[in-house]
Design a protein that fits this description.
Blueprint: H1 3-55, H2 61-118, H3 124-139, E1 141-150, E2 155-162, E3 172-173, H4 177-185, E4 189-190, E5 206-212, E6 215-225, H5 234-275
Antiparallel strand pairs: 1-2, 1-6, 2-3, 4-5, 5-6
């Protein structure tokens, strides 16, 4: 897909979202108007019931007819109150969904910015720094490590960390333990419960393999979340998957570039030596 096509596709998705949002806003206005109409009807019914109640006599056909009318009005009032409850529940459900969509939209916007930052540099150290910032700000991790795969030794080697010393993290064999198994399978790992969890470098809260298609090049292992965050949301799970791909691509590209720069520098140095 060309850059122009991507822009058109993005514009199309944005327009589609705005149309859905507009319809949702119109639906909310309709619900509010219906709610107001029903409540006004209830007030009028209550006034009528009070008036009729004062006019009730103890006997005669008129009294029976009046009592019948009062019962009918009471039933209508109950039906309308039931309708009001349904309308309010629909309104609340829509409001909740709107909040969810707003959160997802903000998260996607943040992810777009983060992925742009990841791919804006080919400096390996800068890429690692950006990955750390994303994990801190978007995931809410306070302590974590970034390990990359050395394909020659089949070991995961720690290259960066936050909240802990990188030297405190040890090399891990692919397929060994929670982290090694996560890398071997390429699947994200999440601890079943964070209740009473104590930091263990071999048993993290979360493992996020860094993958380019099915090829894993490393892993992000999280050991502690900020206090205000005690569980993950559906948006977090989506974020992990998207982050894994973007971070992996950025790391792979920056390492390839660094290696090629080093090789070119070595070749140039050798040529310079021969020509002197």
């Amino acid at each position: 897909m060309s850059h122009h096509d991507e822009e058109n596709d993005a514009a199309g998705r944005a327009d589609e979202f705005l149309q859905v949002f507009k319809k949702g806003a119109e639906f909310t206005q309709d619900l509010l108007k219906e709610n107001e109409r029903l409540r006004f009807r209830v007030v009028k019914l209550e006034e009528t019931l009070k008036e009729k109640g004062h006019d009730v006599v103890t006997d005669g056909p008129e009294a029976l007819e009046l009592k019948k009318k009062i019962i009918e009005l009471e039933q209508e009032k109950e039906e309308i109150l039931g309708q009001i409850k349904v309308v309010e529940e629909e309104n609340q459900n829509f409001a909740n969904r709107y909040v969810e969509i707003e959160e997802e939209n903000n998260m996607l916007a943040n992810l777009y910015i983060a992925s742009y930052q990841l791919h804006s540099t080919l400096d390996f150290k800068e890429v690692l720094k950006i990955i750390q910032e994303i994990v801190i700000n978007l995931i809410g991790a306070e302590e974590f490590g970034v390990l990359l795969l050395d394909e020659k030794t089949n070991l995961l080697e720690p290259v960066a960390s936050e909240g802990i010393e990188t030297s405190a993290l040890s090399s891990i064999v692919v397929g060994s333990g929670i982290i090694g198994e996560s890398v071997d399978s390429g699947e994200n790992y999440f601890i079943e419960s964070m209740q009473g969890y104590e930091r263990d470098f071999h048993k993290p809260i979360v493992c996020i393999p860094l993958k380019i298609k099915e090829h894993v090049i490393g892993v992000i292992s999280i050991y502690k979340l900020f206090e205000q965050k005690d569980e993950f949301t559906n948006v977090d799970y989506e974020l992990f998957t998207l982050l894994a791909g973007h971070a992996a691509t950025a790391v792979f590209s920056s390492r390839m570039y660094s290696d090629s720069e080093r090789k070119l520098s070595t070749i140039q140095g050798f040529i310079d030596l021969l020509t002197k």
